[in-house]
Specification:
This protein has 88 residues and is α+β, with helices and mostly antiparallel strands. Helices cover 28% and strands 33% of the residues. The radius of gyration is 12 Å and the shape is globular.
Length: 88
Amino acid sequence: MTRAYAVIVLPRARKSIERLDRTMRVRIQAALELLSENPRPPRSLPLVGETDVYRVRIGDYRVLYWVGDTIRIVEIRKVAHRREAYRS
């Protein structure tokens, strides 16, 4: 059995999650818990031009996160609607 990853939600992402309606917030929180067991689930995709940064789709929202394998951390960097997710 492998050791689970620690999931760290950055303040910017936490604010975005808190603004969502309850149903979507619960779905995203469940997905974040799953990332602690498997940071690269089958539907996650690496971001082009970034190192160790991935995205996962949850309905119309995207979760952008960084994976640190050596220190076993998943850092949630951004949670946004799909039309806003990739803008700086």
